[in-house]
UniProtKB/TrEMBL annotation:
Organism: Hydrogenophaga aromaticivorans
CDD domains assigned to the protein according to its UniProt record, in alphabetical order: PaaI_thioesterase
Domain Thioesterase: 55-139
Protein name: Acyl-coenzyme A thioesterase THEM4
Broad EC category: hydrolase
GO biological process terms held by the UniProt record: fatty acid metabolic process
Reaction equations catalysed: octanoyl-CoA + H2O = octanoate + CoA + H(+); dodecanoyl-CoA + H2O = dodecanoate + CoA + H(+); (9Z)-octadecenoyl-CoA + H2O = (9Z)-octadecenoate + CoA + H(+); tetradecanoyl-CoA + H2O = tetradecanoate + CoA + H(+)
Length: 155
C-alpha cells in the first residue's frame, strides 16, 4: 500500500529493513502509518497466506501489525512532542521492549484491517502505545506496546 508521508517513509534506509515496517524489505508487511488527529492509523489487507484457521488471520500477523504500528507511533509521538520534523536529527528510533496482545475475536482474512494507536504515556526514552485492530466495525485485537528508544550500542 502506498501512503503519502507515512512515518515509515522517514526511517533512514539503514534501519528500513524491519519485516513489519521496513520499506526496504520486499518480503515484509511494509506498513504505512499516519496521524489521524491524536490517533495513528495503519490500513493493511491480509493475503490468503496469512491464514490461521481457514478464513481467519494468523495471530502472529496481528501481533506484528500491532508491534510495528506502535513503534512507529512512538517515534512520531516523540517528534510531535518535541515540535520537530520527522526528518530532523538526532533521529528518534524505537524498538519493542514489550508486546502484549489480547485476541478478542477471530480476525477475518477478507478485506482491510484498520489498526489504530493512541499514546498512553511518554516518559524519558519510553513510550507506551495502545493499539487496536478492527475488521469493519468489529475490534478483533487490542495490544499494548512499551517502545524504548534504541540505545546507541543496540545489539
Ligand atoms: C527508525 C527505525 C526503527 C525500525 C525498527 C522498528 C522496530 C520494530 C519492532 C521490533 O520488532 S524491534 C525488535 C524486537 N525488540 C528488540 O530486539 C529489543 C531488545 N531489547 C533491548 O534492546 C533492550 O532491552 C531495550 C532497548 C528494549 C531496553 O533496554 P534499555 O537498557 O535501553 O532500557 P532501560 O532499562 O534503560 O529502560 C528504559 C525504560 O523502558 C522500560 N523498559 C525497558 N524494557 C522493558 C520491557 N521489556 N518491558 C517494559 N518496560 C521496559 C524501563 O522500565 C524503563 O522505563 P522507566 O523509565 O519508566 O523506568
Amino acid at each position: 500500500m502506498d501512503a503519502i508521508d507515512a512515518f515509515q517513509d522517514h526511517y533512514p534506509d539503514n534501519v528500513a529493513h524491519c519485516y513489519g515496517c521496513g520499506s526496504q524489505n520486499p518480503h515484509g508487511h511494509q506498513i504505512k502509518t499516519v496521524w489521524d488527529g491524536d490517533e495513528t492509523v495503519t490500513r493493511f489487507t491480509p493475503e490468503p497466506y496469512h491464514t490461521s484457521v481457514p478464513g481467519y488471520a494468523y495471530g502472529g500477523l496481528i501481533a506484528s501489525l500491532i508491534d510495528c504500528h506502535s513503534t512507529g507511533t512512538a517515534a512520531a509521538a516523540m517528534y510531535r512532542q518535541a515540535g520537530r520534523d520527522m526528518d530532523s536529527l538526532p533521529a528518534f528510533r524505537f524498538v519493542t521492549g514489550s508486546l502484549h496482545v489480547d485476541f478478542l475475536k477471530p480476525t477475518p482474512l477478507a478485506g482491510e484491517l484498520v489498526i489504530r494507536g493512541r499514546v498512553k504515556e511518554i516518559k524519558g526514552r519510553k513510550v507506551v502505545v495502545e493499539t487496536t485492530v478492527s475488521a469493519g466495525d468489529v475490534t478483533t485485537a487490542r495490544g499494548e506496546v512499551v517502545a524504548v528508544q534504541m540505545p546507541e550500542n543496540f545489539g
